[in-house]
Amino acid sequence: MDLPLFHRDPQPHVSLAWAPGDRAAELREAAARLTAVAPRSPLWRAPVHSVSCIVGERVYTVWPPGERR
């Protein structure tokens, strides 16, 4: 894939929760409470070696940096 660089220093992340807009405030409050109790907890961390996107039947490795896109 020959795509332009989107971010110079990407910081991949994973969404752990989702809620409809009318419940978003409650979700933010719950996340804030959990973070206040254990901001450095191992529960909030997981090793990631690569990130891939599946589009149709093709798999594209989009991270780590340095791999040709």
Automatic annotation (TrEMBL):
It comes from the Eukaryota. Gene3D superfamilies: Cyclic phosphodiesterase. This is 2'-5' RNA ligase family protein.
